[in-house]
Amino acid sequence: MKIFIAVMAFFTACILQAQIAEMIADPMPVPSVHASTIVELKNGDLLSAWFGGTRESAPDVAIWMSRRTKAGWSKPVEFAREPNIAAYNPVLFHSADGVLWFYFKFGPSPAQWTAARRFSKDEGLTWSPVEHLPAGIYGPIRAKPLVLKDGTILSGTSVESYSSWAVWIERSTDHAKNWTRIGPLTAPGTASKPGETHGIIQPSLIDLGGGHIRLYARATKTIGRICQADSFDNGLTWSPVTTTDLINNNSGIDAIRLKDGRLVMIFNNTLQGRTPLTLAVSTDTGKTWKVWKDIETEPGEYSYPALIEASNGDLLMTYTYQRKTIKFQRLPRP
Predict the structure, then answer these.
(1) Which residues contact 5 (CB under 8 A, 6 or more apart)?
(2) Residue range 286-319, pLDDT digits in tens
(3) Which of 5, 184, 277, 301 is most exposed, with minimal Cβ within 10 Å?
């Protein structure tokens, strides 16, 4: 009996140790923050970035960054700024050659922005100068890209034009040095009112194996559901876009495939507002989904989540918390 109690106490302690919920900084150095990204570094540290300033799209908005070590999150530092124009949507990821990439956007609005990037070969200790990308090439637009086993990078991107949104896939076979565009992938249906925005943006991609790639995309309120499309040739061609059973409030989502094959989605499980923020799990490659956990339920905004699976199998996520700070959570896999 004593052995049983000791074993149970050990596993309980492990679970409690894995469960972490904390603000990266509170207060933040600026009054408004949004759209975080997270990556696990090779030594187990975490790196997160987001945009922040007086308000979204204000000319003083820059990209901020913090590193989490065993001692906790470092004080946020300004990492990227463009002169007199807003920055948006940072994305951190490793290419298969071990380089750590950082992409972000800048401009007066998403309909007019340009992409930029930096890279690090020492896990974020030093970085290359900022490089502006050619018009029309964005890299990962908000969610992390998908890096295939052969090193190919599939980056979900999108274009937000007047009244019409569409998803594109940018594909790189040389470790993010160059990109080709595939698309557009357009949403089913049409807008019902003149000037009403209709479409999909900000896709998250997962690898289902055997060349089968799935994308899940944010959709406008005219659609009201998370949308999906499939590729069976590693992202070269795509099926028509269809709707899923998961509702969407025209806010950011993220999805991953766990090492055990299950899919996990994080999204706002509502058609109005941006709460709750919910985790759902699928055991049948996305045919059906079951809500696993609401991680935020109070009134307010909890949005634009970034989700990854840690090397030990835990779920790691960051998300906008009331536009005042960025919250980090570590949860044991469902």
Answers:
(1) none
(2) 999 999 999 999 999 999 999 999 999 999 999 9
(3) 5
